[in-house]
Amino acid sequence: RHPLATFFHLFFRVSAIVTYLFCDWFSNSFVACFVTILLLLSFDFWSVKNVTGRLLVGLRWWNQIDEDGKSHWVFEAKRVPTVAASTEAEARIFWLGLIICPVIWTMFFFSTLFSLKLKWLALVIAGISLQTANLYGYIHCKLGGQKSISRVTSRLFGTADVPKRQSRRISEDGTEELGR
User: Fold this and answer.
1) How far apart are CA 67 and CA 50, in angstroms?
2) Transmembrane stretches, by residue range (predicted)?
3) DSSP, residue by residue, 1-13
4) Cβ-contact 81, 117 below 8 angstroms
5) Contact 109, 21 (CB under 8 A)
6) From the CB of residue 90, how many other CB atoms can be counted at a distance below 10 Å?
């Protein structure tokens, strides 16, 4: 159903990893490699958060700041009664890409740290941060509509501000249901 979205979901992620691995072959400039990889990671973060998450699995998340200056995280999930085979395959690709890439960037972190290539450490930390932020947001989207899960995670992380987290379910006909 969404082959272009599936392609770009993986394209930016894989391009950032491949560029990180082989950048020394293409360029002797650390700055050019750093900027290229950071741009690929940023494109990936934006496309996953704003496009591919919504198209491939019906989820999205964002942060709102109200008039009082308080931050509210909103997690939204679209209710889909039946999933087609192509959509199921796209969802599997989405989740595998979302989970595997932070693991790869974490391995890069340890290899960079142990090989003492400290100039690359900031880039690897940015990669971990951007990839993990999307993973965290989408896990909350997936589980956010279940009140018991919200209570369990609030107890686990020791946060009492569960009302600040909203989750929205959008049904197939476009009507919206809010949950906390």
Assistant:
1) 24
2) 26-46, 93-114, 120-139
3) --HHHHHHHHHHH
4) no
5) no
6) 22
Q: What is the tens place of the pLDDT at every residue in 91-113?
A: 899 999 999 999 999 999 999 99
* Spatial separation of the C-alpha atoms in residues 62 and 53, rounded to whole Å: 12
Model confidence, pTM: 0.76
When computed from its CA atoms, the radius of gyration of the chain, rounded to whole angstroms, is: 18
Token duo for residue 60 = 């999205």
Q: Which two tokens stand for residue 62?
A: 């964002």
> What are the residues whose beta carbons fall under 8 Å from the beta carbon of 166, sequence distance 6 or more?
72, 73, 74, 75, 178, 179, 180
Matching residue, tokens 């002797």 = 28
DSSP bridge partners of 170: 78, 176
For residue 164, pLDDT beyond 80:
no
Give the number of other Cβ atoms within 10 Å of residue 31's Cβ: 8
| pLDDT band at 174; cut points 50, 70, 90 | low
